[in-house]
Structure formats: C-alpha cells, structure tokens
C-alpha cells in the first residue's frame, strides 16, 4: 500500500508540474481542473513545490467576479541546465534556466588532439559558463552533449565520428560526469537538431519531421509522432551511408559513407577542383556560383541532386510532413532551390523542404529540451517509469536573440 501511495504521489506531482510549466502563470483552481486532482491535493503539492523553491507566485488573477486567486509559475532560476554542441571545428556551450531562456553562451575552437584533452576542454567550458559572475543563476544540474557520431550506450564511446579523434576510445558521459559531478547525457548532434526544430517550431501537423544536416558530413535526425527515432543501435539517420552517390562497396565508403563522399564539404571542394583544377573553400565556391561560374554551378547542381535523392529516399520510407535542411551548407539558399527542384523530379508528390529556423543553434536547442525534460522528470516524477514532462520552448526570436 505504501508503494502505491508513493507512486500516486509521484504521478500527481508530475501532473501538477506539467500543468504549471505549460500554462503558468496559473491558479491552483485551474491546475485542479486541468489535472482532475482535488483542490486539497493541489494545495499540498503546490505548497511543497513553493517552499522548495521550484515554483513561485507571480500575482493574482484579474477580471473575475469574487475573490482573486494567486497564480504560480515555474521558478526560472531554481536551477540551470547546459547544452553542448561538440563539433569538429567548434564547441558551443549554452547555459539555460528552467524556462529554456539562454543565460550565457561560450564558443571555442575544438581541441584537435581529441580524446581526454577534448573532454577536459568541454568540462572547463561548461564549468566556466555556469560560474560566470556576470550571470548569477541556479545550480547546474545536468548537461546534454551533442556529438557528430553514434553514442554507444554500453561503453559510453562515440562511434562513427571520423571528424573528431579519440571519441571511440573513451566513456564520454562517464568521464564528463567525473569532471563535473552532474548528470551527463550524450546524444547525436543531428538528432538534437531535429528535436530542437520540433521543440521550437512545433505544430500539430509536424510531429513527423526529418532534419537533414549537411556540412563536414551529412546525417539525419528523425522525429516520428513527436518522438526521436534512434533505431536498434542508435544509428538511425546515418544517411551518409546510403548506398548511392559513390561506390558503396569501396573501402572508403565503409569509413565515410557513399552518399557523404559526394555531398559534404570535401566533396564540394573536390568536385570543383576536378572541374577547374583550382582548390577553393566552400564559401568561395558558393560565391563563384552566385557570380555565374559554370563549374561552381555544376558542382552545386551535382551535390543538390544527391541530397534530393536522399530526401526522396527518406520520404519513400518514412513519409514525414516536413524535411528541414540545416548544417553549415545544407540550409544555404544556393542549395535549397536546387534541392527542391531535383526532389520534385524524383518523387511523385511534392516534398515540403524548408531551411532550418534555428541555424547553428538547432542542436543546442534540442539539448536544452532534453535537459529540461530529464531534469523535471528526475525532480518531480522521481524517475517514475514512463513519466513525461514536456517543457514549452521559449519564443523562437527570444532564443535566437540570446545566442551569439
């Protein structure tokens, strides 16, 4: 009986927190109507949450006949979460309050020696961001780290991450936990970007979306029914290994992937070099295409055609309502109109393809959404199996404006 009472209390508390997080500022009477719990139960739970500092009063209801009621919201500064976007060339760290508002951000070039030196860098950046004296905030409780590879849940290593050395040789989450003393979650960065786009721009008709990132590599994050699809080994969305573009049986394709060999940064540089004999950066090739350089235009046509084929393959299997293009290359206008044009030629119905609204901050936003949900569940549902507490996102413009 005691166990059942404890489970019931957890369920009630998580329902109350979800109502306050979603609809706050909100009165206890309104929480009672939303949850179906008695006013006495609501008063007890809200009183405990307020005394512990997790919710706060923010005024009273107005415009009603009779006595005005006190309204509550989640206390934003009761704790903080960190989101880390660990890229091959750059690391971004964002510190956020319990509403998802960005309090501080730090950006540094990635430590190229990789391995434990890279872990030390991430730990130092997270701690420095959390301890910034110009940003007084609550205690840091959890950090979510986005990585360009597949986290192995058994060993903690990050597999299939050729652009960062040594991640397959260490327990990334475990080592960061030792350095920082907080909960650490590690997730594929493109998966986080997909969650970030879904969280920040959620519409009821877009619970099925695929985020395709094109930059140093190519990958996809898949959201089905509002839930991230990871697959049996966590490698769902590794579309760089789709067996077309380059020879999928070639030895090089086993390391990088046949599609990635013809779509990402090195492919664009190599294609243009083959056509002109010149070695140029990707931005320079895009600029040349805008200036009418035929070789640059052909290079972008070839790359866009392969991305369109991949998009059509995704739609044929998953039938998502939307494909979001992101990454340092994927969302550029010069590619977007080409991808749409080729996609229309290789699939019998229109494929909705849109550029990322969050740009380089998509993975950070996804990390924040996971961190907040995980923290709320651990605090207020006490790890109850199957519990869900979804924290509404801050306004898109507010989130982007707070980033550097």
TrEMBL record:
Keywords: Kinase, Membrane, Transferase, Transmembrane, Transmembrane helix. Signal peptide: none annotated. InterPro entries: ATPase_NBD (IPR043129), ROK (IPR000600), WH-like_DNA-bd_sf (IPR036388), WH_DNA-bd_sf (IPR036390). The chain crosses the membrane at residues 209-229. Pfam families: ROK. One of its GO terms (molecular function) is kinase activity. Belongs to the ROK (NagC/XylR) family. This is Sugar kinase of the NBD/HSP70 family, may contain an N-terminal HTH domain. It comes from Ruegeria faecimaris.
């Amino acid at each position: 009986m005691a166990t059942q009472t404890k489970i019931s209390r957890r369920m009630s508390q998580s329902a109350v927190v979800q109502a306050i997080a979603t609809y706050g500022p909100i009165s206890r009477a309104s929480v009672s109507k939303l949850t179906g719990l008695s006013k006495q139960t609501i008063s007890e739970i809200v009183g405990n949450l307020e005394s512990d500092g997790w919710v706060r009063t923010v005024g009273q209801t107005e415009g009603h006949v009779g006595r005005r009621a006190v309204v509550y919201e989640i206390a934003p500064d009761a704790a903080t979460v960190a989101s880390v976007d660990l890229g091959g060339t750059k690391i971004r760290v964002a510190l956020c309050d319990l509403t998802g508002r960005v309090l501080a951000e730090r950006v540094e070039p990635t430590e190229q020696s990789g391995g434990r030196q890279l872990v030390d860098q991430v730990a130092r950046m997270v701690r420095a961001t959390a301890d910034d004296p110009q940003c007084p905030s609550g205690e840091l409780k959890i950090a979510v780290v986005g990585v360009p590879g597949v986290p192995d849940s058994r060993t903690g290593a990050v597999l299939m991450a050729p652009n960062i050395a040594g991640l397959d040789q260490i327990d990334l989450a475990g080592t960061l936990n030792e350095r920082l003393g907080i909960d650490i979650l590690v997730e594929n960065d493109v998966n986080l970007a997909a969650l970030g786009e879904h969280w920040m721009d959620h519409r009821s008709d877009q619970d099925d979306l695929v985020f395709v990132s094109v930059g140093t590599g190519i990958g996809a994050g898949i959201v089905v029914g509002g839930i991230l699809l990871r697959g049996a080994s966590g490698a769902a969305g590794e579309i760089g290994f789709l067996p077309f573009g380059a020879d999928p049986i070639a030895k090089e394709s086993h390391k990088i992937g046949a599609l990635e060999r013809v779509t990402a940064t090195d492919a664009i540089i190599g294609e243009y070099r083959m056509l002109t004999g010149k070695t140029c950066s990707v931005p320079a090739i895009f600029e040349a295409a805008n200036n009418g350089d035929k070789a640059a235009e052909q290079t972008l046509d070839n790359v866009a055609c392969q991305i369109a084929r991949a998009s059509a393959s995704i739609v044929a299997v998953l039938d998502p309502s939307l494909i979001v293009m992101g990454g340092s290359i994927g969302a550029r206008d010069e590619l977007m109109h080409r991808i749409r044009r080729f996609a229309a030629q290789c699939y019998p119905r229109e494929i909705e393809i849109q550029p990322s609204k969050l740009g380089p901050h998509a993975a950070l936003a996804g990390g924040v959404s996971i961190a907040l949900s995980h923290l709320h569940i651990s605090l207020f549902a006490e790890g109850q199996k199957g519990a869900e507490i979804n924290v509404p996102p801050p306004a898109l413009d507010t989130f982007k404006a707070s980033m550097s």
